[in-house]
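User: Hi! I have a protein structure encoded as tokens and I'd like to know what sequence might fold into it. I'm fairly new to this, so please keep things simple.
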């Protein structure tokens, strides 16, 4: 298997390397030399979701005004002639990845899978049904039992929602859906919807950074302020790093760990009691979008332990924040902040629960030249009640810093009629002296085939820092996707 993987990588690089080296934008047809190509859409160099679209979106598009105004007896309103079939779209993808150094706690391949995604959309009257499902064969984690919460197994339900607009000013979305908001580029403060960090670290498409939520979303539009309200009746955690695919630092063992110490957090089954609320109020002031956020639920990854059983737990959490995004000089700037209130450690002296925090994000993005975009971010985590935290820790324990700083830099280059995208994203923490380097090449061969290759390089001086703990997971990956 090792030789097969390396042969595939070699073949892909043989095909793609000449494209990277010799690719030049084709000359314009005669007579069109004076026309200019359109500039990059706003935010193309920043996000994802990655990357994420800049600002991480703001909800699903509303149905056209008046779509529900017809009579129920008018069957043409429910079906179009083109709607008689079963229109399914999606893609088939193969992803292979291998570690570039040894990790005694994990397999050599962090990624080895083939995936078939199927999307179906049906509109009937004022209702639109969206279904998206993945069939997956994974040689790394050959789980046969399907778990829709963690994404394990041969089937992952990405989306199963019903959208409708009972009135022109209200959109409703019920069911499994991917939710996102905020202004960060691969950094999140007020976006408390679940993430899939395993997918992010092994080279899956950036869309898989966002995990689905089982929720009800209401979007109300008015002249005073628009409101998004999300209710999740049963807590949806992150698909967090648990050691089955990515090794990590285990504080209980005071060492790196992986398959030898898989994190098994206490599951939360209680519908309508172990639930989550999220709200966003936003309004445009000229070209600037201002938003207020609120969240009531739990830490999305296990950030606590029960001292009686040593089970990992998801402590209670409330978050209050704001964001502002808009033009500044020749680019786009954003600021976002959030106050994280750890409700099970309100005084900061509970050594088994993560402290409250203040988080801040400053960002700026600019088109440097045609088809070349750069972006920069500064991110801060400030642990609150730090003196109480220090007093609660046993003597000799390695303490976390009161302030954690992270800088990010992204540069994106489009070539060959924008079919070839070269991107580089780097996280660096001057306080932790660690980082995460993500160069990537994506080439659209034609309307059906896309290939991608890239690196996930972690570095740091200590196994106990956030990025440093993943250093042995550094990997190279390649994928090919056929869209239909």
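Assistant: Happy to help. Inverse folding works backwards from shape to sequence: for each of the 484 positions I chose a residue that suits the local structure. Here it is:
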């Amino acid at each position: 298997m090792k030789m097969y993987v390396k042969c595939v990588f070699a073949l892909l690089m043989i095909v793609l390397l000449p494209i990277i080296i010799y690719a030049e934008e084709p000359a314009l047809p005669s007579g069109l030399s004076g026309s200019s190509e359109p500039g990059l859409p706003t935010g193309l160099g920043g996000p994802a979701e990655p990357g994420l679209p800049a600002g991480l979106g703001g909800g699903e598009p509303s149905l056209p005004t008046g779509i529900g105004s017809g009579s129920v007896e008018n069957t043409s309103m429910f079906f179009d002639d083109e709607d008689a079939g079963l229109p399914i779209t999606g893609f088939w993808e193969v992803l292979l990845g291998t570690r570039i150094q040894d990790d005694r706690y994990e397999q050599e391949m962090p990624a080895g899978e083939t995936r078939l995604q199927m999307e179906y959309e049906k509109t009937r009257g004022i209702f639109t049904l969206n279904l998206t499902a993945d069939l997956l064969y994974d040689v790394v984690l050959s789980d046969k039992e399907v778990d829709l919460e963690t994404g394990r197994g041969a089937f992952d339900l990405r989306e199963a929602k019903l959208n409708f607009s009972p009135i022109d000013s209200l959109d409703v979305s019920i069911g499994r859906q991917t939710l996102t908001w905020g202004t960060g580029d691969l950094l999140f403060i007020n976006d408390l919807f679940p993430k899939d960090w395993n997918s992010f670290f092994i080279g899956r498409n950036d869309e898989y950074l966002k995990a689905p939520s089982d929720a009800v979303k209401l979007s109300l539009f008015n002249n005073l302020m628009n409101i998004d309200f999300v209710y999740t009746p049963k807590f949806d955690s992150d698909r967090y790093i648990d050691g089955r695919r990515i090794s990590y630092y285990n504080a209980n063992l005071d060492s790196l760990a992986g398959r030898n110490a898989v994190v098994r957090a206490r599951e939360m089954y209680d519908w309508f009691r172990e639930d989550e609320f999220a709200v966003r109020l936003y309004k445009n002031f000229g070209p600037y979008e201002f938003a207020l956020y609120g969240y009531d639920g739990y830490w999305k990854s296990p950030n606590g332990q029960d001292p009686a059983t040593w089970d990992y737990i998801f402590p209670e959490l409330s978050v209050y924040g704001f964001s502002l995004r808009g033009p500044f000089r020749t680019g786009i700037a954003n600021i976002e902040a959030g106050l994280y209130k750890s409700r099970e450690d309100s005084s900061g002296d509970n050594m088994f629960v993560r402290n409250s925090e203040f988080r801040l994000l400053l960002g700026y993005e600019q088109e440097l030249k045609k088809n070349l975009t750069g972006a920069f971010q500064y991110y801060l985590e400030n642990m609150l009640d730090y003196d109480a935290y220090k007093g609660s820790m046993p003597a000799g324990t390695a303490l976390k810093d009161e302030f954690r700083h992270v800088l990010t830099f992204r540069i994106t280059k489009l070539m060959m009629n924008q079919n070839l995208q070269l991107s580089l994203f780097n996280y660096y923490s001057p306080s932790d002296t660690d980082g995460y380097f993500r160069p990537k090449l994506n080439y659209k061969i034609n309307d059906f085939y896309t290939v991608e290759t890239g690196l996930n390089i972690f570095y740091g001086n200590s196994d106990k820092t956030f990025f440093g703990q993943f250093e042995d997971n550094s990997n190279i990956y390649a994928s090919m996707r056929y869209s239909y």
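A useful reference point when you look it over: The radius of gyration is 23 Å. Feel free to ask if any position seems puzzling.
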